[in-house]
Design goal:
Length: 145
């Protein structure tokens, strides 16, 4: 899944509010989202800012993944908003969600090509993989489903 622009371009479309849904399958209880490369995520951030998450950090352009968490982060709490120039929650890496339905909401403000904070907003390109219920059990207690 990706924004509706070429990831190599500067500036994704403005004034966006849409969701991309992934079909739930029997015996799959979670989903993992990963970037396709180290430059395939740039939502509200200047070059080199890294991963940002949460309501305080991600207000103008972000993706919303309900109860998302990066695996292997000790004491990490789930967040819903992700922005910056890398994907991750407390650490750069994939995002896992057990929240159903499986969807990613995309939010972008009206200022996408400027000399302000939005200068590096090229959008995102993500891969997703459904997690079998047996694999999802390791996240129970860390993520509300």
């Amino acid at each position: 899944m990706s924004t509706f622009t070429n990831i190599d371009s500067q500036g994704h479309l403005n004034n966006l509010d849409y969701s991309v849904c992934v079909e739930q399958r029997p015996n799959y209880c979670g989903i993992t989202y990963t970037t396709t490369s180290n430059v395939s995520f740039a939502m509200t951030g200047m070059d080199g800012i890294g991963n940002m998450f949460g309501i305080a950090s991600c207000q103008s352009d972000y993706i919303h993944i309900p109860q998302g968490i990066t695996p292997n982060v000790v004491n990490g709490k789930p967040h819903d908003r992700f922005c910056g120039t890398a994907l991750g929650n407390y650490a750069i890496g994939p995002i896992v969600s057990l929240s159903k339905p499986f969807n990613v909401q995309v939010i972008a403000d009206e200022d996408e090509i400027s000399t302000t904070e939005d200068v590096e907003n090229s959008g995102f390109e993500l891969l997703y993989q459904l997690l079998p219920c047996s694999a999802s059990e390791s996240f129970q207690g860390r993520i509300s489903s």
